[in-house]
Amino acid sequence: MAYVDRVCIQKTFEFQGLDRRAVVAEFRGGDITSDAGALLLREQEQASGVIRRFAACFEDYRDSRWTEHSVPELVAQRIYGLVLGYEDLNDHDTLRSDPLLATLVGKVDPSGESRRLERDFGKPLAGKSTLNRLELTPEDGPLGHKKIRLRAEAVDRFFVDTFVEAHEEPPKRIVLDVDATDDPLHGDQEGKFFHGYYREYCYLPLYIFCGHWLLCARLRESNIDASKGTVEELERIVEQIRESWPEVEIIVRGDSGFCRDAIMNWCEDNSVKYLFGLAKNERLKAAITEELEEAKTLFVETEEPSRVFKDFMYSTLKSWRCERRVVGKAEHLRRGSNPRFVVTNISEDDTPARELYESLYCARGDMENRIKEQQLCLFADRTSTHQLWSNQIRLWLSSVAYTLLQHLREFGLKGTALEVAQCDTIRLKLLKIGALVRVTVRRVLILRSSSYPYAALFQQVLANIRARAPCPSC
What we know:
Elements: E1 12-18, E2 21-26, E3 32-33, H1 39-48, H2 50-55, E4 58-60, H3 71-83, H4 92-95, H5 99-105, H6 128-131, H7 133-136, E5 148-150, H8 152-165, E6 173-180, E7 183-184, E8 193-195, E9 200-203, E10 206-210, E11 213-218, H9 230-244, E12 249-254, H10 261-269, E13 273-277, H11 282-287, H12 289-302, E14 306-314, E15 324-333, E16 336-337, E17 340-344, H13 353-361, H14 366-377, H15 388-412, H16 423-431, E18 435-439, E19 444-448, H17 455-467
Parallel strand pairs: 6-12, 12-13
Antiparallel strand pairs: 1-2, 3-18, 4-5, 6-10, 7-9, 8-9, 10-11, 13-17, 14-15, 15-16, 15-17, 18-19
Helix pairs in contact: 1-15, 1-17, 3-5, 3-15, 8-9
């Protein structure tokens, strides 16, 4: 019996009429795209080389005689798809015929004929079965039939190199934000574990950001301390940064989950500053008793939340190797006292207590927005394969998509209304543009919607991208 790989889809739809006119919709418009703004991504990629450099982290062991789609093309197709909102590989069985996405990847064939007789015959791009070769090759051991392997150490260097090279001049100070979050699991993935705090089965990825720039995205099992592996990640990142910026001052910042003696010891031994939240206890609260009373008095007088800060030296009874500077925030709110503490090796002369807490430590919260962009806007939580390693690759693919958008935000959107916009806002306002696509032997013509409301912004962003010199190493 022959099976036809077709689904019966209704072609014509009638809606509520408009006066005497019938309102009819049909799926017969030909090559129309909703992603015409993605041409900006291609321009940004030409300037930055983000996708090309990430593709170089793969090793291709396939027989070139039977290979239709190169690794750079497969990687580009996957990254552009994520940026445009197509998180599933299944989406690409339809997208592989999209001439706009093929233009981004660089594979438009106006004749409509493929170069080799493979599953993707007649289609310019790869389908899901070809794309999953990027993810499902094991980390080590026999290759099997999926012969594209990713080198983890190359990916680690890629993110840091991309961050460093985005700066024309070395900064005087940088702040590395570390944090962990939950990545919910709904299947029988390798390393699945129930986390008591998040009350669900999940992974516990570790992220390190510097401002908006992603430096580390490490997928981990969740039956661990949130800080596990932080020292190892900081060792390689700090060493790599100092290769280019030997004089830069580095501050590591995190919440109380990263206030661990091993991390603070490493920072002290390697001339790295740190600023971590410190979980409160009775000894700490006793140290700021007078300040809490003062804050309460101020609250009674003003009926406004009040804060008083105290600088003091503190050490745990057993776990710390030495005393360290602690800043206590004695705060009184309508619901009562709210003491908080941070520990640091930044001197009081360099940064006074109030500035340390309010300006430097509280800014840590912005990192949570970056993690939300990663996981919610760019599908870093789409870790649904069985193997932990292949889910790590998916996390990295989303991370590269984020890095490409960060380049667009840093250079293309600078000075515009979207300069600090989140990824999904950029996608909605700048990339999702309706257009007709006409592919001929001489050109690819994109006829955008005449009613697009951000045409002036689009023009400015394109000019900003082209004003930046191409990446020297590309």
